[in-house]
Amino acid sequence: MGAIEDAKKQAEEMMAQFQQQATAQGGGYAAANIAVGTAESDALKQQAMAMDTSGPEFQPIEGVTYDQYVQLCVKLQPAGTDAAKLQELAIANGLTAEQWKAASEGFTQRCVQNQMFARRFGLDVIAADASG
Fold first, then answer.
1. HSE of 53 in the Cβ direction (CA atoms, 13 Å)?
2. H runs (alpha helix) in the chain
3. Looking at residue 13, what is its pLDDT?
4. Domain count across the chain
5. pLDDT exceeds cutoff 60 at 122
6. Could you count the other beta carbons within 10 Å of the beta carbon of residue 93?
7. What is the DSSP letter of 64?
8. Direct distance between the N- and C-terminal alpha carbons of the chain, in angstroms, rounded to an integer
9. What is the span of the domain harbouring residue 21?
10. φ and ψ at 96, to 5 degrees?
11. How much is the average pLDDT of 73-95?
12. pLDDT, tens digit, for every residue of 22-68?
């Protein structure tokens, strides 16, 4: 779950930084900097979405597929960082405690090791959440 919040926070921080820089420079520079920041953000999103989903980052962990984990993370958002509640909800959604622990730790580690994967994961969770 930490990876979801980390990805969202990173995106929010990037936009805030671009907007602060633009405001500090004022005038015509503001619009230009916001446009550059937006373009950079869009480029990163496109790179993340273009990742080869047959790569090792997307492989199942303890039988939990990437897509299952994304969907599960959406369902687990109300639990926040409460480890006991997260496990309880994971079990209620069909995983064993062992599968939850392995998948949660494994996918989080993949996000830590590969920033582009973390971006992709964050975007996929946001999309899954929006589609309800």
1. 8
2. 2-25, 27-49, 66-76, 83-92, 97-113, 115-131
3. 72
4. 1
5. yes
6. 13
7. B
8. 18
9. 2-131
10. -85, 165
11. 91
12. 666 555 555 555 655 565 666 667 776 777 888 999 999 999 999 99
